[in-house]
Amino acid sequence: xxxxxxxxxxxxxxxxxxxxxxxxxxxxxxxxxxxxxxxxxxxxxxxxxxxxxxxxxxxxxxxxxxxxxxxxxxxxxxxxxxxxxxxxxxxxxxxxxxxxxxxxxxxxxxxxxxxxxxxxxxxxxxxxxxxxxxxxxxxxxxxxxxxxxxxxxxxxxxxxxxxxxxxxxxxxxxxxxxxxxxxxxxxxxxxxxxxxxxxxxxxxxxxxxxxxxxxxxxxxxxxxxxxxxxxxxxxxxxxxxxxxxxxxxxxxxxxxxxxxxxxxxxxxxxxxxxxxxxxxxxxxxxxxxxxxxxxxxxxxxxxxxxxxxxxxxxxxxxxxxxxxxxxxxxxxxxxxxxxxxxxxxxxxxxxxxxxxxxxxxxxxx
Length: 365
Ligand code: MRU
What we know:
By secondary structure, this protein is of the alpha/beta class. It has two domains: 5-158, Four Helix Bundle (Hemerythrin (Met), subunit A), CATH 1.20.120.420; 162-361, Rossmann fold. The protein has eleven helices and 16 strands. The strands form four sheets. A seven-stranded mixed beta sheet has the order 6-5-4-7-10-15-16. Strands 11-8-9-14 form a four-stranded mixed beta sheet, with helices on one face. It has a three-stranded antiparallel beta sheet with strand order 1-2-3, covered by helices on one side. The longest helix has 30 residues, at 135-164. It is globular. Bound molecules: 5-S-methyl-1-O-phosphono-5-thio-D-ribulose.
């Protein structure tokens, strides 16, 4: 499928164009379905899938057709809005009881990114607030809330970019790990939002993208996305990062996060912790960029963050081809936790914070 023109971005496209100038749409509501760019096919094929029920939405999250913490939160919100449309119930109690299994199905898809649970809880809370209204109005309210979650996410990414780009000096080499871009969010990106803004300001930066084994979000997604915007990017394998730091090619590291604990410990794609240690050894600042929906104030430290263990075939196979010795024991944790002491600053839509000062991002009670 060819890239879609800017004027065909989904919801309320007139206001979205200003927020999301990219030539792809990660998630949107389209003709009564949840439309996703299928990230498992990138970069070879740009194709969109329409999820027409909550089972399809859950499958898309589990199989990483949509991935990245904010993007799965937005997708789950739309999944609940979709499930709500398909409930037939007379009164609120029956409606809510019928909706809950869909919320639970979506919550069971992936355990680490807190944005998923944040979005599901926000949708459930809205339904409860609207309980006195007609069922049709509740359904409409849930869809509007999903649109709001998407719109707010894009706006937060632009704010992260605005607050963060000043941390990057013109002429810098910037290392990033995994994909924390428009593909991982409603649009623009968190870590890549900061990089995009630095590029818009200076036109003089060089991104180094770790390929990000085992399933190559860096080489498949980050390079594709940056090349759409003509931002200079060099792909390296994960084990080259130390070399390029030693060669003084990298002046800062910037990554996204799946969940940040109250003390500033940050879970992100497996391998991020190693990058942070390397950065410290080389005296290079290591930044985390994430919206406040990624901060889990309910947990004191990163030790409480559940780490997803994914299919071992992601390690043993490259596409269809087996690349390891048949029968070998394999481990595949999808995330690791970078202790706060390695993080120079956490960039949110509210500003740049030392990990110990995250409190300003705490939601009002
Ligand atoms: O397994 P994935 O691809 O969902 O992991 C994604 C990451 O680790 C991202 O860096 C993180 O979600 C931040 S996205 C803005």
